[in-house]
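Database export, one record per block. Field names are fixed; values are copied verbatim from the stored entry.
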Amino acid sequence: MPYEPGSPECRVLIDCKDQLAAMLLALARIENTEHIREQLRSVHNQLEGLHGLYRRNGAAG
């Protein structure tokens, strides 16, 4: 992975986002999982937003 996390929190958030991405790929092979995948994408977006806050605060601090 080319991205180097700036803090332990960033590492956790990156790992969680990666795990969600893998889940989304796996679930895409199963019919009738669109609702679950939408929820997982929402969680991924929330983690991305939180990660952005940590990146900005890390860069400012």
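Remark 1: The mean pLDDT is 89.
Remark 2: The chain has one domain: 8-60.
End of record.
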